[in-house]
User: Which sequence fits this backbone?
RNA sequence: GCAUGAGUAGCUCAGCGGUAGAGCACGCGCCUCUUAAGCGCUUGGUCGAGAGUUCGAAUCUCUCCUCGUGCACCA
């Protein structure tokens, strides 16, 4: 078919074969009829020499711009100002006399009075459907009922919609359908668009903050021979030419540290991370993490920096650092609480884990508190299990929990004062981990020992233990400066600042199981 | 992976052993300063899929699929 040919190509139902939303591979008679009605109108446009899919439209104003510019215009007052607007039709009243046209800034009503339109354009209004895109030329007038409108003198169809949109009054609520057809969700639900806008703003403000502090944005490999830097199961893929299985990264940590070793003193990456784990309202298989590293600082400096960054990002995004999340007031404005993990456990349970000297003692104490243990294999991992079970969910306001057990922190520098602990913190808000940072381990011998321990776990069947990355050890052997580093879950931060209950509400296209296919395995 | 709830028209939902319903949307007609516009008429369904129980299944039972929520894993 020639590009731009109008009216010559025959319209076939099968040419546009996608079923309507609710797709199960079957198109009902009703769905077929609804689409056929629209295809008939599409054909009518073409028969009348109108291209229903034109190339461009020159607009003079966006909806919000007009609403602002003419906000003081009184009802039934008309101006001579000619404007051109365009957008998607979401509603019409009075037999297409009034059209609600939406662009990404908001709504402007079109007023299509028969006195102002040619007979042809008046008649063609009947070929429009809700969901179509159109552009309109006209003057500004506020109607008798007080609605600012473009009194249309001419209009063009900009795209014919073939599928019906959900009912505008009841909305689009079916959660599964919303995630599977996110474009429809975005058309119907402003909150989805708002969340994505805020997500963009949050990331922008984060970049601005880091850039202002002389951080360099970098990109590191997504495809890795060994997936290290975190405890998680990786996705596996295959490179044909190299004949090599590769892993999708589960963290950016080990490569960012190589950059520190290479002399880049402040680096960060905002990147997609892939973890082959369960899904929940807080977990998507692919998610976005900010990791940043800075030479010559320790975890105390890092907490100060993190707190300031989060406060600034919240203020710049929301206009305030105090907000509420799921009915709770959360303050990023007040100083974040900071307490040692041992003290946090003592505060909630009364148990002083410092008195537990062995794995066995820790295990007994944990069981005494009713903490369920399964794969814990060390004193430190038991202490962490107690913390996660008893304390984590109580940390509603932003809190730094500091000084973690060494056994669960293979990349962290030993604590300068406390035996068996490392200089690591995690930050919690609303009972959820938001960030994880530490004084980075820089001693190559210590690092090798720790990773060899991980290697033993891996060999023993722990699928989440870290692999021994020899090149990483070698890099560290060249000398790594004292360094602080942190990872912040961007999706979870966006959830907080948009008051979203599920991570899927802040991801444009969350991972879904496909329909109509049997899952192998 | 475990538990639990859900899946009925394009959308939102009712029906829960006895002929598959409503509102909105769609189509047709009336209506030209409306705001979920209004009025009238009409159309529209493998009741997620399959098997079973029953004279009879959207409804009861079983299996499967998908989604939500919680738990597990994890961030």
Assistant:
């Amino acid at each position: 078919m020639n590009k731009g040919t109008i009216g010559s190509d025959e319209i076939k139902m099968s040419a546009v074969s996608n079923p309507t939303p609710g797709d199960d591979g079957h198109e009902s008679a009703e769905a077929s009829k609804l689409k056929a009605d629209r295809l008939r109108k599409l054909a009518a446009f073409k028969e009348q020499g109108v291209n229903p899919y034109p190339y461009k439209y020159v607009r003079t104003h966006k909806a919000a711009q007009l609403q602002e510019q003419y906000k003081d215009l009184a009802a039934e007052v008309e101006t001579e100002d000619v404007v051109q607007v365009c957008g998607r039709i979401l509603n019409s009243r009075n037999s297409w006399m009034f059209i609600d046209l939406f662009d990404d800034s908001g709504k402007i009503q079109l007023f299509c009075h028969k006195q102002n339109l040619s007979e042809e354009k008046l008649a063609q209004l009947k070929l429009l459907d809700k969901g179509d895109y159109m552009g309109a030329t006209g003057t500004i007038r506020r109607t008798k009922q007080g609605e600012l409108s473009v009194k249309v003198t001419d209009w063009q169809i900009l795209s014919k919609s073939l599928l019906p949109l959900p009912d505008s009054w009841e909305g689009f609520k079916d959660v599964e359908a919303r995630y599977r057809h996110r474009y429809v969700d975005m058309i119907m639900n402003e909150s989805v668009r708002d969340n994505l806008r805020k997500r963009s703003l949050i990331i922008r403000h984060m970049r601005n903050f880091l850039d202002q502090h002389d951080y360099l944005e970098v990109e590191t490999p997504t495809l890795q021979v060994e997936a290290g830097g975190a405890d998680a199961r990786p996705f596996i893929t295959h490179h044909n030419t190299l004949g090599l299985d590769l892993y999708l990264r589960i963290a950016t940590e080990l490569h960012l540290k190589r950059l520190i070793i290479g002399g880049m003193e402040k680096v960060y990456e905002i990147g997609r991370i892939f973890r082959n784990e369960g899904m929940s309202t807080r977990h998507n298989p692919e998610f976005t993490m900010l990791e940043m590293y800075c030479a010559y600082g320790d975890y105390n400096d890092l907490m100060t920096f993190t707190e300031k960054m989060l406060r600034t990002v919240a203020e710049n995004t929301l206009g305030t650092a105090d907000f509420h999340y799921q009915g709770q007031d959360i303050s990023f404005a007040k100083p974040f609480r900071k307490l040692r993990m041992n003290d946090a456990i003592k505060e909630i349970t009364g148990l002083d884990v410092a008195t537990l000297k062995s794995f066995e003692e820790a295990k007994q104490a944990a069981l005494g508190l009713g903490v369920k243990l399964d794969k814990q294999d060390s004193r430190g991992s038991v202490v962490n299990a107690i913390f996660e079970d008893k304390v984590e969910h109580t940390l509603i306001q932003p809190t730094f929990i500091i000084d973690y057990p060494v056994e669960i922190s293979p990349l962290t520098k030993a604590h300068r004062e406390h035996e068996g602990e490392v200089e690591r913190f995690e930050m919690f808000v609303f009972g959820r981990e938001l960030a994880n940072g530490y004084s980075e381990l820089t001693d190559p011998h210590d690092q090798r020992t720790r990773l060899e321990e991980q290697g033993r776990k891996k060999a023993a069947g722990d699928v989440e233990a870290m692999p021994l990355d020899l090149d990483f050890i070698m890099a560290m052997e060249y000398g790594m400066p004292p360094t602080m580093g942190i990872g912040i879950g961007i999706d979870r931060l966006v959830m907080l600042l948009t008051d979203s209950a599920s991570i899927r509400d802040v991801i444009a296209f969350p991972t879904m199981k496909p329909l109509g296919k049997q899952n192998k395995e």
